Amino acid sequence: MFLVTINRNISNDEFENIISNLKKKRINYRIDSWNYKNILFDRKPEFFIGISQIIELYDEFNVLNITDIVEHLSKYKIQKINYKIKKDLHFHSKAIEDRFLRKNKFDEKGITLYLEAKQRGKEVYCRLGKIVLEQETKEEKREISLLLENSINSQEIADFLRLGVALNCKIFFKTNVDLNNTINDAKKIFRSNKSNYTIISNLQEIKEYYLIGFSLWAKESESSLLTIKQNKIMLLFGNENRGLLKETLDSCNKTVKLGPGSSEPLRANQAAVYAFGLLNVKR
After folding, report:
1. What is the pLDDT of residues 204-216, one digit of tens each?
2. CA-CA distances (angstroms) from residue 141 to 50, 136, 165, 199, 224?
């Protein structure tokens, strides 16, 4: 059984959209009885936007005291414990950890264990699991920039300028023509001068980045983005008429097709947001 916890910033409407998409894909799920915005799956689900953690659940039990919890913890090799304990309970995470470490120790090769405790009526229940995916922590800094190739559409460029501000990332436009007038028009659409952008003519100008190109014809699926370890990444998108040039795709470190099993292309700005979200989680 796998528990998916949803990012706390996801609104109720966005959560309903997640549920609607699961239904459309005929994926078996059920809402977690412990928390309305958690979802349970029989099998490990593919990543989707809004996930905070994926936890493989191991155990659920009634808690009489801290000793009960420690006895269950002792069954596993644990590197660290992520706690989710309600404040109204009669014990807390430090008390559990202190008691656990009296007779046990953390193992560098162990798992990151999820421990959740909650009161139901007069009884307290606890469940344990292995965290198999979670959002990137603030300590792990990753620079992700966006590049749009050969666009002369002021609306398309305005969309990317807006993304640069919304996602707090650098925007690059690759072109061999004069873009100044088009960008000025895009700024009028965007109605802001806060954008941070750079115009380049060839990929050698961004050779310090790990380049990921997106195309309908790419062989790798979106799930491959979850395995990337590099911290300085450029996401490359083509204009909506032609997509990325073949020579650009050939120069990328990785090429990816977004959208599982779909031949319908996303708009460049939609694909950028989707890919940006995928790269901001870790395994």
Report:
1. 999 999 999 999 8
2. 20, 9, 18, 25, 20
C-alpha span between 206 and 74 (Å, rounded)? 50
> Which domains does the chain show, CATH number per domain?
2-135 (3.30.2130), 143-282 (3.40.1280.10)
Given a contact cutoff of 8 angstroms between Cβ atoms, the answer to whether 183 and 207 are in contact is no
How do strand 254-257 and strand 210-214 relate by DSSP bridges? parallel
Separation between Cα atoms, residue 67 and residue 61, nearest integer Å:
13
Q: What is the pLDDT of residue 32?
A: 95
Give residue for tokens 């995470």.
93
> Which amino acid appears at position 152 of this protein?
I
Element (H, E) at 214: strand 210-214
Chain mean pLDDT for the chain? 90
Is residue 191 packed enough to be buried (19+ CB in 10 Å), middle (13-18) or exposed (0-12)? Answer: exposed
**Token output for 271:** 């694909």
What gap in Å lies between CA 211 and CA 88, rounded to an integer? Answer: 49
Residue-wise burial string across 2-34, b where 16 or more C-beta atoms lie within 10 A, e elsewhere: bbbbbbeebeeeebeebeeebeeeeeebeebee
Output the pLDDT for position 261: 57
Burial of 46 (0-12, 13-18, 19+ CB in 10 A): middle
- Taking residues 96-107, report their average pLDDT: 94
